[in-house]
Specification:
It is a single chain. With about 140 residues, this protein is of the alpha+beta class. Strands 2-1-3-4-5-6 form a 6-stranded antiparallel β-sheet, covered by helices on one side. The longest helix is centred in the N-terminal third of the chain and has 30 residues. The radius of gyration is 20 Å and the shape is elongated. The mean pLDDT is about 90.
Length: about 140
């Protein structure tokens, strides 16, 4: 009796596990893959952000709200696992995260490509990251044009 219950429970757990993997796989292919290794908001001491097409100024922020926005902004850099990135293009926006332990991480992007940890990836939802970054960090410069 116990043995039968254990077999059913194991079969159920295997079914749930396989279903979860299948749903996650479909989601990644349909919506894109998140950048792996983005720093936790609490571990970021400050950020710098540059937008070479708008201004030569590199903006620096150390307040919690701007750091949170910059970290959460990477959620709009989901990339396609099947599409080839244009690694010959140049980035428009670069965000550098300076961590509490002294390390720094940079993410760069243009309208179609994201560069993360030395690799170029084709952005799934093109233009969204640039539009949001412009509105959050460079609205004054864009309105001045």
């Amino acid at each position: 009796m116990k043995n039968r219950f254990i077999k059913k429970a194991v079969r159920f757990l295997i079914t749930v596990f396989i279903s979860t993997l299948l749903i996650m796989g479909i989601s990644v292919f349909a919506e894109g893959m998140y950048l792996i290794g983005v720093p936790d908001i609490d571990n970021v001491q400050k950020i710098t952000i540059s937008y070479s097409e708008i201004t030569s100024e590199i903006k620096e922020f150390s307040d919690e709200e701007q750091i949170e926005l910059a970290v959460k902004l990477t959620g709009f850099l989901k990339y396609s696992l099947t599409e080839k990135a244009d690694d010959k293009a140049s980035p428009m926006i670069t965000i550098t995260y300076f961590l509490d332990d002294g390390q720094s991480l940079s993410v760069s992007a243009n309208r179609d490509t994201v560069w993360w940890k030395g690799k170029a990836h084709a952005i799934k939802n093109k233009e969204m990251f640039i539009n949001l970054a412009e509105g959050i960090f460079f609205l004054e410069e864009i309105q001045a044009e």
